[in-house]
Structure formats: C-alpha cells, structure tokens
Specification:
Number of domains: 2
Distance between the termini: 16 Å
Order of helices and strands: EEEHEEHEHEHEEEHE
CATH class of the largest domain: Alpha Beta
Number of strands: 11
Number of helices: 5
Largest sheet: 6 strands, antiparallel
Structural class: alpha+beta
Length: 233
C-alpha cells in the first residue's frame, strides 16, 4: 500500500509497523486480573485517540483502559496514560515495550502503533512492581504474535503499456521480486506502478529489466516518493 508523498522533514527511510487492518488482540491473566492488549496501526494522534475511545466504549465495564502510542517514521511522537493505575505502573511500561521491540536483531524501529491494555480487576492487588511487569508483559507478548510490515520510502515509477500486455508484464515483474504499487487504468493504457529504492543504480537496473521484459515496447518513468508497505521477509 502506497501513501502520499513523504514529508521532507523525515530522516528515516524505513521502519516497521503493524499490517493494515482492524488491529491485533491478545490476552494474559495475572492473579485473576485479565489484561487484554489491543494493538492498532495509527498514522497520527487523532487516529490513536479514536482507537482508544472506541475501545473504552467496547470494554465499557472494565476498570482501566491504559494506553501508549509511538508515531511517525522518526518515532518523535510518544505518549502514555495510566488511566487510574498508580503513576508510572502502566502507560510508561507499555510505551517502553513498544520502543524496545526489536523487529530485527539489534533494531528497534516499531512505529505508528497504539497499544491499549484493558484490565478487568480480579480482586488481588498486584503492587507497583507487579503492575509494571503485567502491563509490560501484556504488550510484549502481543507484539511477539502481531503481523508486521516494513514501511519504506520508495520511488514510485510508472510503466504505461497496452491493456492486453499489462497482465503478463506485471506477473513477470512480480516474479522478479519487484514491489508493485496500485495499478492505474486509463482509457488507452494500463499503467503499472513499481515501488523502487530511491537511488540511481536501482532505477537504472529496473529500467533495463522493464525494457527487456517488454521487448522495448515501454519504459520506466520515475515519479514521486511515497511510503509503501513491504512484506517482512
């Protein structure tokens, strides 16, 4: 999935986030208290707060709806809330769990994610240390199972050609390992769109491949850069 052109302020060209969708849920139990973690992909603070509001409504009978989110390619927006738990025992441990999640060994780059932990109190007090461990473990355990994608800033290139030839060339490009953005259909042509690393060497190699696979009937036309979801290998 490709988004609008990237912001020039971003210093990062790639990070990890959740796959697009309604979110991911997991649950643990600690001394009869239920901790239900909901992870939601959220592009901005409005979306994060909307996700929290929706979960408050869904789990309206729960005692706590603690939350944390980290947003932006550079992870420069970070917030947390204890929602009635003792200060520092819920939101901050949740945020730290998001920030320290290594998506590859030695690389912690998860972003655009909101975590909400809904707690149903089980009647046994956990103490400050117990709460910190429970909220941290709840988010960490959910992240271990949640589906992730790479979010990369790529150059979107157009390949216009006749409708009848588009299907075969698209299959050939996918088989060659290229990431395809959304195809566009125009009255006289189909425009295949490739998402390529934004450097001259990669663009030149892709142009040569397109020319070879199409027998010279079309060419690669570089366009804007955009954020694109790339499956995690």
């Amino acid at each position: 999935m490709a988004d609008e052109a990237d912001s020039p302020q971003s210093r990062t060209s790639s990070y990890t986030t959740l796959t697009a969708g309604p979110g991911f849920r997991a649950e643990i139990e600690v001394k009869r208290s239920r901790f239900i973690t909901v992870l939601v992909r959220t592009p901005d603070e409005d979306a994060a707060r909307a996700a929290l509001a929706g979960l408050r409504k869904e789990f309206h009978d729960a005692r706590h709806h603690c939350s944390a989110f980290v947003l932006g390619p550079d992870r420069d927006v970070q917030r947390s809330n204890d929602d009635g738990e003792p200060s520092g025992t819920a939101g901050i441990p949740m945020l730290e769990a998001l920030l320290r999640r290594e998506t590859t060994p030695g690389v912690a780059d998860l972003s655009d994610v909101t975590a909400v932990v809904v707690r149903y109190f089980g009647g046994i007090l956990l103490g400050a240390g117990g709460l910190v461990r429970a909220y941290s473990e709840s988010v960490s355990a959910a992240l271990e199972l949640a589906p992730l994608v790479r979010r990369s800033r790529l150059r979107i290139c157009a390949v216009p050609l006749e409708h009848a030839a588009a299907g075969r060339l698209e299959n050939d490009l996918r088989a060659a390992g290229y990431v395809m953005a959304e195809t566009r259909y125009e009255p006289q042509t189909t425009v295949l769109r490739l998402a390529l690393p934004d450097n001259p060497g990669e663009l030149a190699r892709a142009a040569d491949r397109v020319a070879a696979l199409s027998a010279g009937s079309t060419s690669l036309l570089p366009g804007e850069t955009a954020w694109v979801d790339v499956p995690v290998s």
